[in-house]
Specification:
0% strand; elongated; single chain; mainly alpha
Length: 71
């Protein structure tokens, strides 16, 4: 094999190694994000239960109450 061919093969091997590393890091990031989403969904479900169990009806927002005091 020529030196040029060996260099090309080595360059491809390096690129493949970087690609594998990147894929592994992206996989880990995706896994952590999914864990966070799952936790947030559980917290949201718990908050909904607490709101429902509090017995207070949902209040309708009064648009006039949202106007800043300087108007």
């Amino acid at each position: 094999m020529t030196a040029a061919a060996e260099q090309r093969i080595e360059a491809l091997e390096v690129k493949a190694a970087y690609a594998e590393d990147l894929l592994e890091r992206l996989n880990l990031a995706l896994y952590r994000q999914q864990q966070a989403i799952d936790r947030l969904q559980a917290q949201l479900a718990q908050l909904r239960l607490q709101l429902r169990d509090s017995g207070e009806p949902a209040r309708q927002a009064d648009p006039r109450a949202e106007i800043p005091p300087h108007y």
